Amino acid sequence: MEKFLADLLAAALVASVERCWSKDKLPYKPISEETVRMASALRILSQECMHGRRYPQSKIENGFKRHFEEMKLQLVAEGHTIVASVTENDSLWSMSEMES
Questions:
Q1: Which of 76, 75, 79, 77 lies closest to 23 in space, CA to CA?
Q2: CA 2/CA 69 separation, integer angstroms
Q3: Which of 87, 100, 92 is nearest to 32 (CA)?
Q4: Which residue from 15, 57, 70, 80 has the fewest beta carbons nearer than 10 Å?
Q5: How many whole angstroms separate alpha carbon 68 and alpha carbon 71?
Q6: pLDDT at 69 (0 to 100)
Q7: 22 pLDDT higher than 80
Q8: Of residues 37, 29, 42, the one with CA closest to residue 65
Q9: At what angle do helices 33-50 and 2-17 cross, to 10 degrees?
């Protein structure tokens, strides 16, 4: 459980770093799908736990899926490009790599 929470916190920090980037440095805003998934989980868990809500497993799974899809749509609307997988070594792809 501690590793899960640490991963969620790391994802939230990675997602928040984007706000510090200069808009003229990258013509696109890449963000990994896994980062979006973790940020979505972090947001929904923190909201529900703060209010002391408890749900059955099936409702939790459906809620996570719905929230994740909504968050992806919001990020795309803000100009982000959701990529399947981004690591530290390949996070700054060239435009030609992004288009292929």
A1: 79
A2: 26
A3: 87
A4: 57
A5: 5
A6: 92
A7: no
A8: 37
A9: 110
Q: Which residues pair with residue 83 across a beta bridge?
A: 32
**pLDDT given for residue 19 in this prediction:** 53
Judged by phi (left if over 0) then psi (alpha if -120 to 50, else beta), residue 82 lies in: beta
Is the pLDDT confidence value at 85 over 70? no
Please give the mean pLDDT across all residues of the chain: 71
